[in-house]
Amino acid sequence: MSLHDHFKRNYRYYSLFCFILLLLLFFYVRCFNDYFYFDDFVFLERSKIEHPSDVINFFSIELNKYGLKEKNHSYRPLSTNFYFGFLRYFFGLNSIYYHISNFIFLVLNSFLVFYLLNLLGIQRNSSAIVAFLYSICALNFESQLWLSVIQDLSVTFFLLLSIITYIVWKERKSNLLYFLSVTFYFLAILSKEMAVTLPVLLLIHDYLFSSKTRLGKTKPIIPYILITILYLVFRSIYFIYPAEGSYAIKIGSFVFTFLAKYISWSINALLLFNNILSYIFLIALFFFFIIKSGAKGRNYYLFGIMWFLVSLTPVLFLPNHIYKYYLIFPVIGFLLCLAKLMEDINRYIQYNRGRIIIVITFVTLFYAISYSRFMETAHRMGHRTESFKRIVQYIKDQYPDVPDYTNFFFVFPPGFPSYAFLKNDGSVIRVIYDNPTLKGYEVTTEDNRNPNNLEKTGNIIVRVTEE
User: Fold this and answer.
1) Residue 390 in 3-state DSSP?
2) What is the CA radius of gyration of the chain?
3) Is residue 417 left, alpha or beta, with left meaning phi > 0 and alpha meaning psi from -120 to 50?
4) Which of 1, 78, 194, 217 could form a disulfide with 314 if both were Cys (CB 3.0 to 4.6 A apart)?
5) pTM for this one?
């Protein structure tokens, strides 16, 4: 079949894809001009490329510890150093290109969700609808508003690629596909540590959907398990698991409370339910179709539930660190259940036009409500990043050139997120001046009582207003 015939045969799907892409652009274009925020400056500082050897240094242990005061808890060179390093090398500090990059990752992830669901046996229409809902649900908002959430976008991207190539390898038995799957898993681990749950997901998939013997199901997972063990040993040697702070790992009854919170966020983000009666109705409907769908159908629901629980496990034990963006990958399990539920409900609606009207109405309503939620979140986040940009511009205008080892002391208004601005003793200052000797501090109450303490040679005092 020629390329022309291929496009002629599938023009409806390509037209629909372009239309969806335009909808997503309209949805997220508001955040493209937002500035850097919080951890972005730490990653920008430690990922500067001046020499080819700097790229190799991205993997160094000391560089990945730099800027992390939470007892050096993470090793994510691919999603932090490489990402920010190459974007800074090619585009400088123009944040629009970083936001466009995050948007591209979101689009790719949404397409991979569609492809994976279709690969698992979900009908194309249900897969497309669910993937579109995923792309505009509230769980992905922060990934477009806060650049550092690229860690969760990239780990999701590589995990999905690893799972897809693994499943296709099971069908085609191509050594190249198997090698690619293992490679994608390795890249996922270098993006974020939550990737270590993948071997368990692959085992669950094989036990539910493969007809091989128990040993035959386990053997292909061995390379993934070995990579996981080596990675965990590496982390235990070079990186400390913090006992205190926001990344402290603890065990307690709060785990069930957090699990309920994450489930609530997922349901609210994808189905717009936000009250206990809606949850009860959904659970009842869910279990009704689990019983009615038979053994094969139940495997889809079971795999979706286990996907959600297993992939969420690494963050359930962080009592001081609970965020919606942790659900970017786990919620795909919920999407599988939702897509299967749509197919099961579809069998009970005989009137075809009625099905189309219901779907169009729901998707339109979902888009409108999600857009309203996003604009509200974007306004709040945009106000913070605009404040950061305003301060940075003021500093550069007032002090275009500063000598080495200058200390900046900031006086912030009440309620200003000073810790976010001055993280790591002022990474933002060193980034905007491209000078590693500078530092930034917040003026304490004692300093305010004795302003002369700050009026020393080499110090600059910046008073931030509430405007």
Assistant:
1) helix
2) 24
3) beta
4) 194
5) 0.89
Pick from 103, 69, 98: nearest CA to 86: 98
Cα pseudo-dihedral 163, 166, 167, 169, rounded to 10: 160
Q: What single DSSP character describes residue 59?
A: T
Residue type at position 463: R
- First-residue to last-residue Cα distance in the chain: 62
Element (H, E) at 459: strand 459-463
d(CA 431, CA 433) in angstroms, rounded, equals 6
Neighbours of 384 (CB within 10 A): 19
Dihedral of CA 245/247/253/259: which sign? positive
DSSP string, 140-200: GHHHHH-GGGHHHHHHHHHHHHHHHHHHHHHHH--HHHHHHHHHHHHHHHTT-GGGGGHHH
Helix (H) or strand (E) holding 366: helix 352-398
DSSP string covering 403-439, please?
Answer: -TT-EEEEEPPTT--HHHHTHHHHHHHHHHHT-TT-E
pLDDT of residue 310: 95
- Taking 3-state DSSP, the helix, strand and coil percentages for the chain, each rounded to the nearest 5, stand at 75, 5, 25
Cα gap 429→407, rounded to integer Å? 9
Beta bridge partners of 460: 408
Q: Which residues of the chain have pLDDT under 70?
A: 1-11, 62-73, 211-217, 241-248, 272-275, 278, 295, 348-359, 444-458, 466-467
Residue type at position 151: Q
Q: Is 380 helix (H, G, I), strand (E, B) or coil?
A: helix
